[in-house]
Amino acid sequence: MSLSQKSVNTLDKAARHPVFDDFQHFIDQLQDMSNQCSADLTADDICHFSSDRKQLSMSLKQPFGKGRMELLQLPSGFSIGRSDYFLNYPLQSHYRYLSDQLGFGLMLSGSFGLAVPELHLSDQVEAGEIWVRKGQAEDICATQFSGKRVCGVSLDLSAQMLEVWREEAPCRLKKSLGRHSTAPDCFRYGVVTAEIRKLAMKMLACPTTSLCSRLEYESLGLSLLAWLLNPGEKGSGMTAVEKRHARQKRLISQAIEILHEEWRTPPTIHELACRVGMNECYLKSGFKEVTGLTIEAYVRSLRMEQARLLMSTQGYTVQQAALEVGFSNQSHFSSAFSEHFGYRPSQITRKKTLSFS
Questions:
Q1: Which of 154, 160, 193, 251 has the smallest set of CB atoms within 10 Å of its CB?
Q2: Which residue, among 320, 301, 294, has the nearest Cα to 263 in the 3D structure?
């Protein structure tokens, strides 16, 4: 039996929560990829799959990859997903999202390419970012890279929860949560702060094998959701210093969005500070605190990730990728690429050539 058949049979028995469809789409792509890698691989060779009525989990096996993904639907309709894995082969997934639910995705490590043609969206989801999605999208393309650890948490709200939260939602979500809004939406919502990361890491480590542990897991998820839906100062009991820090983090989030949109010709630090309304020194120090990188290093990492994406998924040569991301000197590009990833860009193009030989 294929992975797809296994998952369909299991999900037919389950509550068919819309978020579970994402899990099945990923499994379908694993099956397709295994056929490309080796005709001898069976479903059981690729992963261990288990489920009950409200929970799905999958553990990847070598040589395909290693790690675990889990999705748990709670009685309230609130769904929590968590993942910590890496793939030994790049994977490009196409799927549909047919739900009006609101979902948050927190990227703790790793990155992947994201494209939603009907939204004119083509971007890279990076570590330290929080994304929001809502509505029915007919074609979503996710490009995952090989050898890169992917670690994250997802939260999806049921229709009932949306009604409760609608009036108190942050301004950035008001449009998506409008009562008559059925249009799909997907956008970068913010950054993973130290407080949010602490909660997310606890969720990754929390067992869900008993009733008490699932209650703790749900409590952590709701606490994380409260942070995401109520990031403002009013009624939060924050001190003046905490309010100032919260404002700075929101401005840094805006700066990160600008860099993702304009990485080919990024603004200077002075220009960036003026556009988000921050002091240059605060911007530089706060940016490094949030992302772990200087602004220059962050832009360089965006260029490197884009270059790898072009070579691994679109067949660009090393020279073509270098020119596309702003390097006129191929040698300088190769050195920067090797420093960032730990291997030469030619290894990607050579591996891709061998896979077609």
A1: 160
A2: 301
User: Is the CB of residue 356 less than 8 Å from the CB of residue 349?
Assistant: no
**Ranges of H-type helices in the chain:** 3-13, 18-37, 43-46, 159-165, 171-174, 194-205, 211-229, 240-261, 269-276, 280-291, 295-313, 318-324, 330-341, 346-356
CB atoms within 10 A of CB 110: 19
Q: Is the pLDDT of residue 181 over 80?
A: no
Q: Choose the final residue of a domain: 249, 272, 292.
A: 292
Q: What is the pLDDT of residues 23-66, one digit of tens each?
A: 566 666 666 665 555 545 555 655 555 656 577 787 877 777 88
Tokens for 131, please give them.
């994304």
CA 254/CA 276 separation, integer angstroms: 7
pLDDT tens sequence across 260-284: 888 889 999 999 998 888 889 989 9
For residue 117, is it within any domain? yes
The number of beta carbons lying within 10 Å of the beta carbon of residue 202 is 14
Distance between CA atoms of residues 175 and 183, nearest Å: 10
**Closest to 104 measured CA to CA, from 124, 84, 79:** 79
Q: What is the pTM of this model?
A: 0.57
CB distance 3 to 30 below 8 Å? yes
Q: What tokens appear for 127 in the block?
A: 């570590």
Shared domain for 93 and 140, answered yes or no, is yes
Dihedral pair phi/psi, residue 24, rounded to 5° = -65, -40
Dmax of the chain from CA atoms? 63
Phi, psi dihedrals of residue 232, rounded to the nearest 5°: -80, 180
Q: Based on the fold, state whether residues 158 and 262 are members of the same structural domain.
A: no
Instruction: Tell which residue, 22, 185, 180, 196, has the closest CA to residue 102.
Output: 185
